[in-house]
Amino acid sequence: MGGVSEALSKLKATVKPGGIILIEEGYIPDDGKRDNIRFNADVYYPLQHWMALFKEAGLDLAETASGHSEGELDSDSGMAAIIARADELIVKHPDKRAIFEGYVRNQQNEYADIDDSLVCVTWVLRNGGL
What is the pLDDT of residue 42? Predict the structure, then answer.
């Protein structure tokens, strides 16, 4: 299984020179917050690391669209919907209860990370050419 560098290289290969790639991701604003990450801490990088990966792949950062502003992301209703659906699935598939409950826990942790420790962003990357 490849990492981010390999994924960026493969994406670049699918786009003509000057073409656009959009990546929606979260990054750690400073390494001090890494210890606060609850869900998949190993997949989030500091901003500087992302910039180095883009440069290494030959992708130019054309634009950055910041993630949600405080109050725009309604994580309470989002989590309520996830929990309700998981409860429905548990009733239908009680033998899979642990899977659905684990998914809910992961989503709760991810929402908490977005609220507390990550900056959500959409990067507009341009294929810099050859």
Answer: 74
